[in-house]
Amino acid sequence: MRFVNPKPVFNQVLCSIGLSLAMLWFYQGLIPKILFQSPAEITIWQNMGFELAFAKTLVGFSGGCEMLWGVCFLKWNRSILLHGLNIMGLAGLLLLIVLTAPLQLTAAFNPVVMNIAMLMLSVVAIQLIWQEQA
Prior knowledge:
There is one protein chain. This protein is mostly helical. The chain has one domain. Helices cover about 80% and strands about 0% of the residues. It has five helices and no strands. It has helices spanning about 5-35, 40-45, 50-75, 80-100, 110-134. α1 packs antiparallel against α3 (about 50-75). Keywords: Membrane, Transmembrane, Transmembrane helix. This is DoxX-like family protein.
């Protein structure tokens, strides 16, 4: 009986997950926060008590942070800590939307879809890393 070494498969899948998360975070930071400043993003900050001008600044800043976070997945895609923080952060961001802008949860392509999909990519990555280390 011939056994196949799963390591190359793990490597490919982990690289795909890291690249996917990097691209998604980069897009989420650049398009709706920096280039086009989505009104929904601005509203979230305003609902937390910030004036319009400062809310726009915070949207841009958060976009930059998201882009940097995406870069982390290119560099450290095998980090259980990074994926764990991603899971907690995405769950926290989803809770923030529930509390500050619950109507966004009823729109097409809403945060529930994106956050859970990205969160699950990190769950799968952690499972693969653990399996690889076993």
